[in-house]
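Slide 14.
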Amino acid sequence: MSASLASRPAAALRIAPLSSRFAAEVVGLDLRRPLDDATKAAIYDAFVRYHVLCFRDQHLDQDEQVAFSLQFGVLERHTLRNRGKVNPLVHVVSNLGTDEKPSGRVKSTGWHTDKSFRPEPSLATILHAVTMPPDGGDTVFADMGAAFDALPDDEKRALDGVRVVHSWELSREHDRVKPSAEEIAEAPPHAHPLVRRHPDTGRRSLFMGQHCSHIDGRPFAEGRARVEALEEHATQEQFTYRHKWRMGDLLMWDNRCLLHRADPNFDAARHPRVLHRTCLRGTTPL
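Slide 15: predicted structure.
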């Protein structure tokens, strides 16, 4: 891709919806090159509007992905560490075992929003396809603003002021993994509003997912059941977008108003699925 593409004015970019619900593709940029201010503004406006952006035909190494990500904020540290020589601000998402062969296991298949257990949960996740199966391995997103809007008015009122505890320890236990004492100390639980306002639009959305443990101040079983019922409502097909990856795709999505999950709809014991992830730090949910 020529250098001239990166210097084109923002008006020359093509941003096209990927579904009737949300998500859009961005064509006409080489993300290995710095963005001018107008282009950054156009990208961020589209990010807020569409929630998921897909940049087609990108071929970034880890350092280039970090450089692109830093143009939109501060990068968040990762709780789990990578093996081998990996940029510490990049997390490798894969189904590979310690022998670097497909393990048959796909992680992050439960609905979640990244780093919601942090005091300042992630603003955005940037995920770059490095090696993908010939078919499948999709990522699915659910619009928590649309899900909140669809609730009855009396239920919306009942959720005002409700806070939920987000726990990395519980999330790891869902994956049948016992976190270390160091991990727990590095990522202690935090309570956040169950309904948060988007800092850019003011729109209200549900804020929960796999890292969400229970409702603060209520009996655990009762609060857990309520959260699970809301998640079942919020992840109905009418609120979702399924991204079928192409090689060279780089996704950037808004963790403040979405849940997402990996779909293990491929032969994970035969085909590798490897992606590089960076996360931008957000703000305290309100």
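Speaker note: The two ends are 42 Å apart (CA to CA).
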